[in-house]
Amino acid sequence: MTDHEEQADRFWDRLEKVNSGMLGLVEAPRLVPMSHYADREGRALWFITAKGTDLVQAVAGGGKPALHAVADESGGLFARLDGTLALSDDRAKLDELWNSVASAWFEEGKQDPDLQLMRLDLAGAEIWLTGGSMRFLYEIAKSKVTGAKPDMGEHFALSF
Fold first, then answer.
1. I need a labelling partner for 116 at 20 to 30 A (CA). Which of 29, 89, 95, 100 fits?
2. What is the 3-state secondary structure of 1-38?
3. Which residues pair with 72 in a beta bridge?
4. Domain interval for residue 29
5. pLDDT tens across 126-141, in order?
6. Do the beta carbons of residue 20 and residue 46 sit within 8 Å?
7. What is the mean pLDDT of residues 104-124?
8. Residue 30's domain is classified under what CATH number?
């Protein structure tokens, strides 16, 4: 396995444990909190949202460059994900993703007329992997005792 493949695996393993991030378009960098669903094989993130949102309206005419920022201190993942955000009518994917969290937002369930599925096809990512919050505290304490700089983990970029 190459370094790139190992880094990608570590990234996806951690991302799959994170529930949300901040999503927005590159042209209008207003980020909003969104729950994402990681699709490792499809190299994409999926979002279940409402048709009336600004993001849905902005990509109604076709996909646009977007970014999704993730910060999970306890899991040791910080990432900026770039790609193309577009609407999707993939009912099979919606069936696969549907859960109790999504159902809390839509009174009529998967049939709710306001429900919209979006897909972020990933192009690249800048990623920082750390040992998590306990490791951070250890590294800071160790640096105070030894005078050495703390080891904050890995930083790398991926192309998809």
1. 29
2. CCHHHHHHHHHHHHHCCCCEEEEEECCCCCCEEEECEE
3. 77
4. 3-159
5. 999 986 555 555 445 5
6. no
7. 96
8. 2.30.110.10
